Structures are given as structure tokens and as C-alpha cells.
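pls ignore typos typing on phone
zinc ion + seq
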Amino acid sequence: MHEMSLCENLIAVIEAEAARQNFGRVSKIWLEVGPFSGAEPEALRFCFDAVSRGTLAEQADFEIIGTPGTAYCMACAESVEIGERYDPCPRCGSHMLQITGGTELRIRELEVA
Ligand SMILES: [Zn+2]
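k done
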């Protein structure tokens, strides 16, 4: 499963942070997930649970923050919000969009214990 390796990466990031900032336990994780990140929030939650076992993030609360999908429309010369990666511009219907946001999958904040 794709989300499994994503979660393994997250744990690696958290462990690196723990070593850098000198904390031993994480009680809560806020994760930003964009609609174009390719990750399913429910699958992430499930995988994180499995992957975090035996690590410093075991039993941490896992909060997923959905971020908006944004794109730059070349026809409108403006930023617009879209729900799906291949959606047309909601203003003019153009497909000349460049995705500018919504691909993120990153840790926004950690609460350490
Ligand atoms: Zn447009």
C-alpha cells in the first residue's frame, strides 16, 4: 500500500525531529494532506497506526488537516480553487491550469510529551 511507505517516511521525519529537538515522545501529530497528495486520509490513519507501533509516536493522536487544491489559471491570470486535479477552471472553464497547492503531505505540528 502506497500510504504505508508515506507513513514510514513520516515516522522517519518525526524521529529525526526528536533527535534534533531532544524529545522522546509525541502525543499528537497534525498532518496537512492536500487533495492531490495521492493519499487517502482514512488509509493514512490506518497505516500510521500500524507503522507507529513501537516508535516514539505510538498511540499519538493523528489529526488530518485537509488543505485546499489550488491552481493558477493562465486564461484568467488568477489563482483558483479546484477539487480534482483535472478539473477545469471554475471561472472560465479553461484547462490551462497549473497546480499550485494541494499536493502537500506534511507535518504541520507535533505535540511532544
Ligand atoms: Zn480561468
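The first strand starts at residue 26 and ends at 33. The radius of gyration is 17 Å. more later
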